Amino acid sequence: MSEEAPHLELKIPNHIAVIMDGNGRWAAARGMPRMVGHRAGTENLRRIITACVEFGVKYLTIYAFSTENWGRPQEEVDGLMNILAQVIEQELAELHQEGVQLRHIGRLERLEPSLRQKVEAAVEMTRDNQRLVLSVAWNYGGRDEIVCAIRDMIRAGVPAEAVTEETVSQHLFTAGIPDPDLIIRTSGEMRISNFLIWQAAYSEWYVTPTLWPDFDKEALRSALEDYSKRDRRFGRLSKCFEDNAAHAGKPA
Ligand code: IPE
Ligand code: IPE
Ligand code: MG
């Protein structure tokens, strides 16, 4: 089997965002409780983080708990909160060693104080790491993020005429993180589910029927191969990028 050729042609997105969907269906297909799927999904996440580091991805953003997921049965919500605590306890040291910078996007207010402290400590501990910036969307909603940004700008006294797209971006939870180049959604659903609704303006989408616990490094490679063939025009014509390639530094 030739490993070389696809490797050489891969365009690696600077920022990949993932809607990790399908844990419940993965478990149901095996006659198991939904939490078994969430645990399998968490193990897979660990593998995908490593794969992203190996592929040279600089930013990875994962959708792990939405503002709407509070509407699930209490037992599942509690189970997911426990998983977050466990992941931080068990994986933080190794992630830190691998040079992963952890960020949180969303709101921490609604979390148990002890969990909130764990998240804040993990972010603080890894803040200077540069190899991969891993943003965990937890109690995250794109609309909520925009509401927070508007409130923030009003509180800061930003005058109406000073509000630009740049100003809004700087007040989002993702301030300082470039927009995602590629958004992957597993389990086949063709919707955004309130994820990065501002930042996704010109992201490329890749939807696969594979359920999240089964989305392995090879599946990620397939997504990258597909992405490598895309012609990103940003509303312009490919020719404009060819003409400007030498000095613009924009993605071709
Ligand atoms: C994604 O898997 C994980 C979370 C939303 C927390 P789901 O739990 O949504 O799995 P399905 O979509 O029910 O299969
Ligand atoms: C999106 O998946 C949220 C996460 C992956 C955390 P959902 O399963 O909650 O989305 P819907 O309900 O199918 O739109
Ligand atoms: Mg789902």
TrEMBL record:
Homodimer. Its EC number is 2.5.1.-. It comes from the Bacteria. Keywords: Magnesium, Metal-binding, Transferase. One of its GO terms (cellular component) is cytosol. Catalyzes the condensation of isopentenyl diphosphate (IPP) with allylic pyrophosphates generating different type of terpenoids. GO terms for biological process: polyprenol biosynthetic process. Pfam families: Prenyltransf (PF01255). Belongs to the UPP synthase family. GO terms for molecular function: ditrans,polycis-undecaprenyl-diphosphate synthase [(2E,6E)-farnesyl-diphosphate specific] activity; magnesium ion binding; manganese ion binding. Binds 2 magnesium ions per subunit. It is an enzyme of class 2 (transferase). Substrate binds at residues 22-26, 34, 38, 66-68, 70, 72, 185, 191-193. The active site is at D21, N69. Coiled coil: none annotated. This is Isoprenyl transferase. Its cofactor is Mg(2+). Mg(2+) binds at D21, E204.
